[in-house]
Design goal:
alpha/beta; 12 strands; 13 helices; single chain; TIM Barrel
């Protein structure tokens, strides 16, 4: 490990404790829009359903919320969208908080936000809440732990895919391999692969790791914005335009029916190196009645951003890293498209 990487965490902590970030915020107030991208609020290494990279511990999330409430203009994302669309100015140091997927731990996150007087947008995979279809990115983690080794063989289009499971490291790699395989195919192929995985795993008791509808209603009553994250979390370009339209339309209708309120915010699922949004898919989002959509592009949005391709800032566990991003990286991160965000 280089001296620079060893020193960086201590330097970030010192900047926070000595008021360096506060000075930056005061002297150079941000005119960009920091849309924070959370997923799960749980132990990054001790949970069975979410990759450590998308987890923030409850204690860390409490520290994030407390600091944001005291130092930033934290606004609901729909208000930001309305102001941008209407050409109205935003306050300096504007932040919005968003969550993807709909994990059960999001209820406590909503309660924490409400306790500090803040709101967030929670993008829900409407067909996969408790009692619905298992949320496949979490389900495969459970199933792969149950598959006996040393090799799992899945078949797609008659072609066998052999996945080693002989060591703990191979099983961790298998999660990435199977995730890429499932999101890289149309929905019917994804479901066929999932059936094969279930058969290989045998009789597995699936834990309840997604929100219940009554919990989502409580979050809405606390002032949280509920948005759509599709019905079953497919890769939309791979699903095709018509399947994408069905996913967006049905998820929006289900959420509105259950909550008795309009759903206008959308988040594209399966961000990463694979293509997950295209101009054709963005047009489907417009056509199905959403007012705006967020991406997984790690950058700051601006009033000039495409409202159907809004950039977001990926969060990390430590408060120091989050504030470093808000106060230092905002000068460096440019909203450049990644391969997953273009035709």
């Amino acid at each position: 490990m280089s001296l620079r990487s060893q020193a960086a965490p201590a330097a970030k902590t010192a900047l926070l404790r000595l008021g360096g970030y506060a000075a930056c915020r005061t002297l150079f107030p941000s005119r960009k829009i920091a849309i924070l991208r959370y997923h799960a609020v749980c132990d990054p290494w001790g949970n069975p359903y979410a990759h450590p990279g998308i987890c923030v511990s409850p204690a860390a999330f409490e520290s994030h919320v407390r600091y944001l409430a005291g130092h930033y203009a934290v606004l609901p994302l729909p208000e930001i969208v309305d102001r941008v669309r209407g050409g109205r100015p935003l306050p300096a140091n504007t932040v919005a908080i968003t969550f993807d997927d709909g994990y059960a731990d999001n209820l406590d996150a909503a309660r924490t936000l409400h306790r500090h007087g803040l709101s967030a947008t929670f993008y829900i995979t409407a067909g996969c809440l408790a009692g619905g279809q298992p949320f496949w990115p979490a389900e495969i983690r459970t199933l792969l732990r149950a598959v006996p080794g040393p090799v799992l063989t899945l078949s797609t289009g008659g072609t066998p895919v052999r996945i080693p499971l002989g060591t703990p490291e191979e099983r961790r790699t298998a999660v990435r391999t199977v995730t890429k395989l499932l999101k890289g195919n149309p929905i019917p192929v994804r479901e066929a692969l999932r059936d094969q995985l279930r058969e290989a795993a045998g009789d597995v008791q699936e834990p309840e790791y997604m929100l219940r509808w009554d919990e989502l209603a409580e979050m809405h009553a606390l002032g949280m914005t509920i948005g759509s994250h599709t019905l079953t979390h497919p890769n939309l370009p791979n699903a095709g335009v018509e399947a994408a339209r069905q996913e967006l339309t049905e998820s929006k209708a289900r959420l509105e029916r259950e909550l008795g309120a309009p759903v206008t915010m959308f988040s594209y699922p399966n961000g990463g190196a694979d293509r997950y949004m295209t101009p054709a898919i963005a047009q489907v989002v417009r056509d199905t009645g959403y007012a705006a959509a967020t991406t997984s592009r790690n950058a700051f949005a601006t009033p000039a951003s495409d409202l159907y391709a809004l950039e977001r800032v990926q969060v990390q566990e430590r408060l120091e890293d989050l504030i470093f991003a808000l106060e230092i990286e905002r000068f460096l991160l440019k909203p450049m498209a990644r391969p997953g965000e273009v035709e």
